[in-house]
Amino acid sequence: MAQRLIFTNDVNRELAAIVDRLHPSSLFLLTDTNTSRMVRPLIDLSATHIVIPAGDEHKNIDSLQHVWQGLQQGGATRQSVLVNLGGGVVTDLGGLAAATFKRGMRFVNVPTTLLGAVDAAVGGKTGINYGGLKNEIGVFAEATDVVISTCFFSTLPSTELKSGFAEMLKHALLTGSDEFDRLLDIDPERLSPENLLHRLQVSVMVKQRIVEQDPHEHGLRRALNLGHTVGHAFESHALACGRPVPHGYAVAWGLVTECVLSHMMMKFPSDTLHRLAAFVHLHYGHFGITCDDYDTLLTIMRHDKKSRQGEINCTLLAGCGDVRTGITVAPDDMCVAFDIYRDLMGI
Amino acid sequence: MAQRLIFTNDVNRELAAIVDRLHPSSLFLLTDTNTSRMVRPLIDLSATHIVIPAGDEHKNIDSLQHVWQGLQQGGATRQSVLVNLGGGVVTDLGGLAAATFKRGMRFVNVPTTLLGAVDAAVGGKTGINYGGLKNEIGVFAEATDVVISTCFFSTLPSTELKSGFAEMLKHALLTGSDEFDRLLDIDPERLSPENLLHRLQVSVMVKQRIVEQDPHEHGLRRALNLGHTVGHAFESHALACGRPVPHGYAVAWGLVTECVLSHMMMKFPSDTLHRLAAFVHLHYGHFGITCDDYDTLLTIMRHDKKSRQGEINCTLLAGCGDVRTGITVAPDDMCVAFDIYRDLMGI
Questions:
Q1: Which of A97, A153, A202, B7 would be a feasible disulfide site paired with A67, CB 3.0-4.6 Å?
Q2: How far apart are CA B47 and CA A287, in angstroms?
Q3: What gap in Å lies between CA B255 and CA B166, rounded to an integer?
């Protein structure tokens, strides 16, 4: 059963139609404390409401158990439906809760952040953090429906918007230069909801096409890892140093670094790299690293979930839309790429 | 990727071949405290050993976390393999741990009880008990390989052997009268390992064929629920009353009661019913119930995971091998069936 993707600015009408079609024995709504306050009042849905604390630090086994208990106490059956209304934490954790409750009940994702819409709500990755590792526990399970709307984004802080926009940049790089050029012409903080919904539709469909061809991440799907080997390392290192950065910002800097590697190893065009770097520098600033950080970053990358036998593994590009997955990068090459990243970012 | 079923009395050779083929980045072995002592010494496998406490009361979130932590501390990756060596608790819980670790690592099941071999190790059902409900949390996930051997059974108590044999009776009823006749000629406590391995192979293949056609329990697979609507009710009621009964015994009594219903509603042959009842009475004794227990049993059946809208739902038989799934049974009919069950069991 394929996941349905719905792009709309009338969320309530679409949700009513979905509930009508899924005909659940009972309906549950999951939010976090933020979306409970900001978004829940906009949604016209009669459902048992479960609330988890907001924040990635609560994407854990305690919140997962809280959802299981809410489902159990509300009398959920395999014919019930859980609507996940929130950012990536809510859709990831709610998806896992539903996928494991009585060996699987249906769920609907309604992402309320740009990052959630472009990245987390589609693709069937569910999970929680465990033992200090991100998304260590989870399954692949698709929502029956994903309702994507920009109507929730008006109250988002600009860091949130830019975080999501970084994933859109990634999808554009994966698909071709036209969409990439279009995005670079945009100021991510000054997009009209209609224009954003259209760009978002293009972006999400890039991911959806890739996921459909490789639902369990055996091959092609690793394309979506572009920017993330280095991005995750920046993010983890920043967190460990007590100066956390938004996920999307880390991805933006990761994209620059991995496009440097792509240029070094795959002849990715120099002018595209420079335009990307300038855009990222302008809108995201930079993540300041020195040579002293290189060893730590290399170690983190060797322990990435996607690495094999301690090698550093990246998705690289021979050009916009020309993707090479599973490329092993030598530590020395990575250090050269860090040097060039620092030059490009004026560090 | 289809699950491989291997029937053997040379477990070590087969395990070596499996490890060779799966080529894991690292190997983990899960046992409980019983199989750690009784069975682990027989297995020639170099692996990081994780042990959970034995018993259904430990089929819970704490043991699940213990396995996750063992995998994490042992540096398991998505390319690692977990071998579950034990009864149904170990294969169910180990399967869930593997299926959710980093969104899924491979696992191999080596059932060490007859019940585990015939029922739990095949079919992709993983799970733990939660909030007082059996298998409330779980996923459908298949082992890459299931190694079935009777060499572990020589030390099993006879209640364990008979528990497993009840599921074999169920499979025989689902497949046809020849295998059913063959089983009724057997004394389940006096089977040679070779004869048992052969009967077991026939029995497991019945389940495997059904599961292959309906992996996620949408239709046909409900056939496997034969005997279990009533059996689970007996088991839960017995537990609540502080006089727990083995699962397989409850299934045996459930089979008798549901064959009574099948006779009442579907003209299941009377002589087959009587032969089944006599066999069950001889080898399993009876579960003593009175009219005062009927209401409690009906309530439990209405809350069964497979029930819809509080109706009582059974798999029934129009004859051996002639299966009707999803039959709604009126409470009054169920009470009549309880009456006849009591007559047949001499209660």
A1: A97
A2: 41
A3: 9
